[in-house]
Amino acid sequence: MHGGILPDGTFNTAAGKAEAQQAKNVTAAFAPETTALSAPAVFLPGAPHQKETAYTVRSLAGRAPDIRQPGHAAWDRCEEIKPLHEPWQQRKKGSTRFRAGYDEAYFYFRFLVTDSLLVSVDGNAEIAVAGGDRVEMFFAADSTLKEYYCLEISPQGRVLDYRAAHYRQFDDAWDLEGLEVSASPHAKGYQVSGRIPMAFFSTLLGKRGPLKGSSIHAGVFRADKTGPGASDGFNWYSWIMPQSPKPDFHIPSAFGIFRF
User: Fold this and answer.
1) 198 φ, ψ (degrees, to nearest 5)
2) Looking at the 3D structure of the chain, how many domains does it have?
3) Parallel, antiparallel, or unpaired for β 54-56 and 256-259?
4) Band of the pLDDT at 92, cuts 50, 70, 90?
5) Which domain CATH number covers 138?
6) Sequence-distant (≥ 6) Cβ neighbours of residue 227 within 8 angstroms
7) Do the beta carbons of residue 210 and residue 102 sit within 8 Å?
8) Phi and psi dihedrals of 215, rounded to 5?
């Protein structure tokens, strides 16, 4: 990832990797509790048939949110996935909320996470993000996962992005050009907001022009480190419940549909 966190709290992919790895804090306020507009569908791991779950990415044309303000009024126009679930821990409900919207230029996203213990791993390599708490989004053109793209973002706004192919063939040299992220930890957890150029999704789908009416396959996840020790594990949260007896988001059943 060739990026950095700017003084205003925005993560800009053109700013240089060294700045991103050294940054410790970003400026953003945690949004207050809001009422869920939509709830995730729940499926049991290993179920023989699982219908696709869809999320409507609402248009924010003319009303784009400021990603540095998680309480910005524009977020209220987006449907909310609340909460993410913990499929492999007796199907517990978590305290992670997600909203997304788009306009002609960008796809906007926001995670609000309640977490009493934030864990991060120091290091200059992107892969250090995978050693601690983080939220995640995966995107694919279809359910084959022949090629898909992954973003993992820490509470401090550090980004691990990579291209992948089923099954678990990773290319961490890939960078999502134009990605911007604003994030901040706080007493009750952390928030992550950001925006992705719509050109990324146009390329993913092989389409030109507006994407209204188009769909992509997407996963929305969270990794919660249970303690600071190297031997401590993770609790895994997902929008939908993958058909897998053990934690695994890199399979088709972990993806739902985002409809523009």
Assistant:
1) -65, -20
2) 1
3) parallel
4) low
5) 2.60.40.1190
6) 117, 119
7) no
8) -135, 150
68 vs 105: CA distance, rounded Å: 17
Q: The whole model's pTM is what? A: 0.82
Residue 97 domain-assigned (yes or no): yes
Q: Between 19 and 108, name the one with better pLDDT.
A: 108
Domain for residue 37, yes or no?
A: no
Instruction: Flag whether pLDDT at 28 surpasses 60.
Output: no
Half-sphere exposure in the Cβ direction for 130 (13 Å, CA): 9
Express each pLDDT in 129-165 by its tens digit. 999 999 999 999 999 999 999 999 999 999 999 999 9
**Quick one: tokens of 166?**
């089923």
Host domain of residue 119: 77-250
Establish if 96 belongs to a structural domain. Answer: yes
Integer Cα distance of 89 and 99 in angstroms: 24
Within its chain, how far is the Cα of 66 from the centroid? 17
Cα 54 to the center of its chain, rounded Å: 16
pLDDT at 89: 84
Residue 93 pLDDT class (50, 70, 90 cuts): low
Whether 154 is in a domain gets the answer yes
